[in-house]
């Protein structure tokens, strides 16, 4: 019989896939002899089977749960549902990948009308007993029965207002008893039945609820955001309760072995006296710094410091720990590799190498490439920041700078970003897991309540989003969509700026400056570069973009989109004139105007790139994209005058160029087939610019000419002949010969199928995975967003194939092209220039299939560099270097 349930003492850290991260670490801490309340883990395989069996727990799994429960009861000397000495447990989720706040937790399970009296009697603390009971009713109702949590909070607020108190702690035992009765009455009103009193039913329904929560909307969204497969499932951890809310010698907290914001090597965390764990992360009360525990409970503090050091040394990484103190005794409830800011991740990785705890290779593997994004974006301009005056301050929960328009709900924040393209600051009393999508879209987060380990702080740091938490001065009016701070009222849509490094809030727009790679960033990236095999280029259309990319470590340009150069106000008229020309003579006249502009652009890029390779893609988009709207009468009249025709004729030509499916229409190489003079002009610009820069700057410029949208061998050969003949003519005119290459983008499925034939003529392939994905899936990347959410919800797709390369389908086409391409030309150069070139999982795939380089936007270059290194190390290719300290 398959084993689905494991006692903590039966597992270890290596069983993460089966027990989930939390379960495996609880088992490992048990093995290490740390004070862990005992319990058991229902495996991820049980979750997978539950969903496969139409959300039913199989009888053998149910039996294993009750057998494990009996073993824990025996060890605790208590009985589930016993009227004299009841055994109480917590039920927590625990996927193999850390998903903070994504899944649901239930505490104090096992309490009922009888057990609560037993707890009150044994503890001598009725308030504690009924406080625990009301918490359980609230959690069970919300998580298991899917009732609104807000109504329970409303009951609490009503009672506090009636008693004239502000804090939950000010409510006495009788108040808690009344609260329990009101909670139960609300439950009965909503569900038409009494609150369940059978502890075994409570447990089984709670396990089911955790399994179900694997597929709640916020969990699905988080998985999609972090490339976590849906078939992994979550484990469930059932653990004996220890209570931090029994009195003043009790407490609960969250701590990190190093500062998760800066990476500083100091114990960092918070705790609350007389509270349960949910109080700390929910941000309902403002917690105390962990250092103050040394004064209030010195022995506990000493033990905790020793435990923290032991765990960091054991796991070789910064640890995020949850703990509870019951009656002056320390209990460890969780440890995991802690979420951290990008700058902290770099500092911790470098420090751990310097401290002899990690090798350089291990350090490179510790940093999530996606996190680097947070270091590659603007910070506040020092002068502008100095001139600005803060209107308030909170806790610096997640560093960085953010300036945007205020929105008060996650939905509104998402809509403003997606539909209006606004940069948004999400302002909340406190955030909760339901806010995850809005938080992801926001550039900054401001909360009125919560500490440095609140939900907002932890999630924002993981996302690399600026966050200021716990600003008690903020008065939020949700009904009016406004907040008051510093004597000012800010309404929805108003601009504010946040400094997540200092906690300061500014009621104005503050200028930003670009970030720089220095210190730990440069150190770790140099280590990464020593391991990787893939070259990393950039997609750049201007000298400015090219300069930025070089600063971030780009080794060449993998894509220069020449069409972007034609949209400038001083060029668009000539471009439109060329498109609307009726004769080749008219077209050449317009192209002659564009030639010096195009050549000047190329010269600027060559000068910046030096002797690094530069791949230039010839004109690609449908021509109608350059044309004026028919309502733009002045522009049409000007074009008509230049062409010696009437505005009516120009409008007629615009109508004629309209296409029903332009992305699969007259574009890319097809333009050069119809109008060879376009390819002639672009070739002349490429070669003349290369010759001139080579002479002027004494450089060996190597242009790579890329023909887009090739689907037939003769198509490519037709255009290559134009390129070669024009290049030869230019070199003869200039009396200078230079080297150049001609290759193609592989972006049409047919090209993948005949790659061996194309490779006989093409010197390089660059995968245009944006179009290849579009054509392989058969949907438009501009419109797919309208229906992809339905596909995610129904688990048809797990991620956006335009953001993360579809390795199963599109990847198979790429692999086929690589194999066929090398068959046709063994020394063919292979790369990728679609946006996937900056996605870590896609970069690793490109390494696996043997590409020579990836190309991505300038700010994603460091991400690609690190991902390329991790691809090598993940394969064990860097094993010999693991001894480098």
Strand arrangement in the largest pleated sheet: 12-22-21-14-15-16-17-13
Strand content: 15-25%
Mean of pLDDT:
91
Please estimate the helix content: 40-55%
Ends distance: 47 Å
Per DSSP E runs of 2 or more residues, the count of β-strands stands at 31
Contiguous runs where pLDDT drops below 50 for at least 5 residues? 877-885
The number of helices is 34
**Measured on Cα atoms, how large is the radius of gyration?**
31 Å
Secondary-structure content class: alpha/beta
Question: How would the global form be characterised?
Answer: elongated
Q: What does the largest sheet look like?
A: 8 strands, mixed
What is the structure about, briefly put?
The chain is built from 34 helices and 31 strands. Helix 6 packs antiparallel against helix 7, helix 14 crosses helix 19 and helix 20 packs parallel to helix 22.
Describe the structure.
With 885 residues, the protein is α/β, with parallel strands linked by helices. 46% of the residues lie in helices and 16% in strands. The chain is built from 34 helices and 31 strands. The protein is elongated.
Q: How would you summarize the topology of this molecule?
A:
Elements lengths: L4 E3 L8 H16 L7 E4 L1 H9 L6 H18 L12 E7 L10 E4 L5 H9 L2 H19 L4 H15 L9 H19 L7 H15 L3 H9 L8 E7 L10 E6 L11 E6 L3 H6 L5 E2 L3 H4 L1 H18 L3 E8 L2 E9 L4 H13 L5 H7 L12 E2 L1 H6 L2 E4 L1 E4 L2 E7 L2 H11 L3 E5 L7 H6 L2 E4 L7 H9 L2 E4 L5 E3 L4 E4 L2 E4 L3 E5 L4 E3 L5 E2 L5 H13 L3 E5 L3 H9 L5 E5 L7 H12 L3 H26 L4 E4 L15 H11 L3 H11 L11 H6 L1 H22 L5 E5 L5 H22 L6 E6 L2 H5 L1 H5 L4 E4 L1 H9 L10 H6 L16 H15 L4 E4 L7 H9 L4 E4 L4 H14 L11
Parallel strand pairs: 14-15, 15-16, 16-17, 24-25, 24-31, 25-26, 26-27, 27-28, 28-29, 29-30, 30-31
Antiparallel strand pairs: 1-2, 2-5, 3-4, 3-5, 6-7, 6-9, 7-8, 9-10, 11-23, 12-22, 13-17, 14-21, 18-19, 19-20, 21-22
Helix pairs in contact: 4-5, 5-7, 6-7, 13-14, 13-19, 14-19, 19-34, 20-22, 21-22, 21-23, 22-26, 23-24, 26-27, 33-34
């Amino acid at each position: 019989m398959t084993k689905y349930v494991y006692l903590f003492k039966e597992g270890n850290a290596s069983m993460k896939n089966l027990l989930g991260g939390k379960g495996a670490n609880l088992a490992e801490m048990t093995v290490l002899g740390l004070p862990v309340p005992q319990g058991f883990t229902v495996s991820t395989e049980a979750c997978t089977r539950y969903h496969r069996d139409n959300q039913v727990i199989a009888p053998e799994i149910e039996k294993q749960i009750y057998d494990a429960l009996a073993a824990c009861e025996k060890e605790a000397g208590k009985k589930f549902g016993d009227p004299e000495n009841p055994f109480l447990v917590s039920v927590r989720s625990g996927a193999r990948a850390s998903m903070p706040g994504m899944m649901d937790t239930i505490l104090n399970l096992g309490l009922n009308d009888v057990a609560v009296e037993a707890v009150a009697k044994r503890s001598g603390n009725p308030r504690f007993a009924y406080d625990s009971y009301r918490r359980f009713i609230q959690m069970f109702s919300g998580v298991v029965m899917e009732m609104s949590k807000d109504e329970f909070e409303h009951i609490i607020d009503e009672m506090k207002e009636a008693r004239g108190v502000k804090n939950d702690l000010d409510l006495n035992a009788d108040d808690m008893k009344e609260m329990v009765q009101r909670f139960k009455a609300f439950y009965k009103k909503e569900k038409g039945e009494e609150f369940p009193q059978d502890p075994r039913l409570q447990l089984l329904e709670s396990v089911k609820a955790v399994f179900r929560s694997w597929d709640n909307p916020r969990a699905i969204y988080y998985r999609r955001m972090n490339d976590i497969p849906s078939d992994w499932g979550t484990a469930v951890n059932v653990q004996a309760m220890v209570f931090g809310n029994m009195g003043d010698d009790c407490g609960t907290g969250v701590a990190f072995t190093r500062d998760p914001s800066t990476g500083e090597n100091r114990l960092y965390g918070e705790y609350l006296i007389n509270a349960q764990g949910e109080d700390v992360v929910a941000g309902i009360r403002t917690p105390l710094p962990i250092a103050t525990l040394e004064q209030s409970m010195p022995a506990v503090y000493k033990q905790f410091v020793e435990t923290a050091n032991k765990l960091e040394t054991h796991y070789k990484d910064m640890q995020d720990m949850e703990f509870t103190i019951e009656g002056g005794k320390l209990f460890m409830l969780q440890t995991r590799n802690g979420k951290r800011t990008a700058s902290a991740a770099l500092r911790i990785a470098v420090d751990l190498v310097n401290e002899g705890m990690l090798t350089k290779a291990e350090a490179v593997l510790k940093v999530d490439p996606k996190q680097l994004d947070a270091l590659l974006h603007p910070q506040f301009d020092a002068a502008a920041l100095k001139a600005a005056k803060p209107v308030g301050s909170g806790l610096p929960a997640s560093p960085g700078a953010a300036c945007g328009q205020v929105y008060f709900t996650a939905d509104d924040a998402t809509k403003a970003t997606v539909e209006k393209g606004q940069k948004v600051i999400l302002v909340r009393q406190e955030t909760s897991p339901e806010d995850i999508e809005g938080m992801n879209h926001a550039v900054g987060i401001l909360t009125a309540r919560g500490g440095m380990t609140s939900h907002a702080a932890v999630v924002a740091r993981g996302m690399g989003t600026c966050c200021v938490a716990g600003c008690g001065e903020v008065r939020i009016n949700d009904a009016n969509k406004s907040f008051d701070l510093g004597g000012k009222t800010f309404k929805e849509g108003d601009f504010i700026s946040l400094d997540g490094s200092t906690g300061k809030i500014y009621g104005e727009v503050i200028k930003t400056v670009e970030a720089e790679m220095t210190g730990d960033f440069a150190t770790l990236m140099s280590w990464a570069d020593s391991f990787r095999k893939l070259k990393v280029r950039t997609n750049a259309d201007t000298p400015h973009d090219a300069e930025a990319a070089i600063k971030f470590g780009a080794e060449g340009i993998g894509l220069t989109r020449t069409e972007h150069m034609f949209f400038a106000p001083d060029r668009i008229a000539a471009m439109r004139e060329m498109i609307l020309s009726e004769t080749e003579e008219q077209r050449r006249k317009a192209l002659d105007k564009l030639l010096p502009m195009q050549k000047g652009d190329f010269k600027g890029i060559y000068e910046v790139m030096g002797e690094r390779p530069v791949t230039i893609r010839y004109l690609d988009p449908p021509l109608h994209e350059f044309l004026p709207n028919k309502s733009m009468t002045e522009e049409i009249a000007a074009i008509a005058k230049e062409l010696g025709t009437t505005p009516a004729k120009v409008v007629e030509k615009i109508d004629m160029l309209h296409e029903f499916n332009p992305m699969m229409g007259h574009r890319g190489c097809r333009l050069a087939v119809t109008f060879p003079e376009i390819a002639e002009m672009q070739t002349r610009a490429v070669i003349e610019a290369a010759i001139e820069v080579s002479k002027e700057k004494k450089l060996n410029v190597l242009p790579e000419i890329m023909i887009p949208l090739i689907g037939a061998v003769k198509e490519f050969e037709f255009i290559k002949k134009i390129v070669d003949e024009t290049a030869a003519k230019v070199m003869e005119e200039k009396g200078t010969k230079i080297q150049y290459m001609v290759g193609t983008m592989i972006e049409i499925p047919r090209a993948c199928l005949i790659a061996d034939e194309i490779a006989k003529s093409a010197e390089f392939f660059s995968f245009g995975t944006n179009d290849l994905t579009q054509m392989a899936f058969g949907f438009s990347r501009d419109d797919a967003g309208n229906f992809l959410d339905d596909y995610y919800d129904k688990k048809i797709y797990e991620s956006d194939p335009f953001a993360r390369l579809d390795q199963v389908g599109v990847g198979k086409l790429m692999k086929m092209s690589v194999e066929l391409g090398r068959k046709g030309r063994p020394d063919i150069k292979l790369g990728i220039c679609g946006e996937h070139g900056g996605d870590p999982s896609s970069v690793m795939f490109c390494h696996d299939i043997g590409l020579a380089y990836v190309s991505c936007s300038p700010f994603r270059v460091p991400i690609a560099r690190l991902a390329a290194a991790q691809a090598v190390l993940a394969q064990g290719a860097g094993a010999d270097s693991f001894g480098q300290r």
